[in-house]
Amino acid sequence: MRKVVLAGGTGHLGTALKEKFLEMGWEVLILSRKQPKKEDGAGYLFWDGEHLGTWGNVLESADTVINLSGESIRCRFTRKNRAILEESRLLPTNAIGKAIAACDKPPRLWINFSGISLFSGLNELQDETSIAVGEGYLAQLTTRWEAAFSAFDLPETLKVILRVSPVLSKQRGMLAELLPLARWGLGGKISNGRQCMSWIHERDLVRLVLWIIEQRQPRLIYHACSPRPVTNAIFMKALRASSGASFGLPIPRTFARIGSFFKAVNSSILLQPVPGTTKFTLEDGFDFEFGEIECALNDLVK
Fold first, then answer.
1. Could you give the 3-state DSSP secondary structure of residue 78?
2. Residue 201 CB contacts under 8 Å (≥ 6 apart), including other chains
3. What is the pTM of this model?
4. Can you give the residue ranges of every domain in the chain?
5. Taking 80 as the threshold, does the pLDDT of residue 260 lie above it?
C-alpha cells in the first residue's frame, strides 16, 4: 500500500485530496493542529508546523509528502497578518525539510504548494519558465516561501513546487464569494475589468497532483492553473451566464476598495492582475478536463 502524508491537510484542498487517495486505496496520514471530529479512514497526527517531533516518523518510507500549509491570503496585510502568513508557510516548509533529511528511508517525492501570486501585478503571461517576480507583498511572500523549499538538498527525494492559482469551488474561495453577488445582479466587471485572472477547477487540481505523483522525473515547478486565463470582465460575463443573471452592475475601483475594507481583505486581491499560465503541464501530457472558463463555471454552478 502506498503512503501519502498531507501536511496541513484538513482544509478544503486537503480534504479533496484525502478523499481521492482513500478512494484509490492509499494509506493517508495527515499532519494537523486539529483532531478530526469523526473517523474518516485517514490517520491524524498532531504537529505544530514548526518543531521536529514524533510526527517525523511517519515520513519514513512514504511515497509522497504534500505540504499544503499556509493561512489564507484573504486578509488585510497588516504587520500582524503578515507575520501569520509568513510563519504559516516558512516554518512548516522548514520543519518538513529537516524531517525528511533525518529519515533513514526518506519519501520518494515532496510536493510543496506555492502561489501563482508570485506574478501579481505583471502584465505579460508567465509560465513555469519565467524568472519574473511581480509587485507587492504577495509576490515577496511567495519568493521567500519557494526559497525556503529550495534550500534543502535532499538527494533521495524528488522535489516539486506547485504554484496554485485561485481554485474554483462552490464551497470555498473566489467562486463561492462571487456567485451570490452575480445572482443578486452585482456580477459586473471590477474596475476596468482588464486585470488578468488565473484559475483552476478543483477537480483538475486534484487530477494534476495525482498526475505529478505518477511522473518518473517530474519538473521542479508546475503551475496549477488553466492554460487559458481570462480577464476579469470575461470571467464575470461567464459567471453571469452560468448563474442565469441577465445583468451585472459594474463595481468601480473606488467601490472595490471600500468593499475590500469592509470584508477585511487587501484590495490588491481584486484589482491586481495575476497573469499565470502553464507550459510544462501541457508539454508533459496533462489533459485539463476544464480548460475553458465557461466549461468550468457551467460544471460548478449549473
1. coil
2. 167, 168, 226, 289, 290, 296, 299, 300
3. 0.94
4. 3-167+199-225
5. no
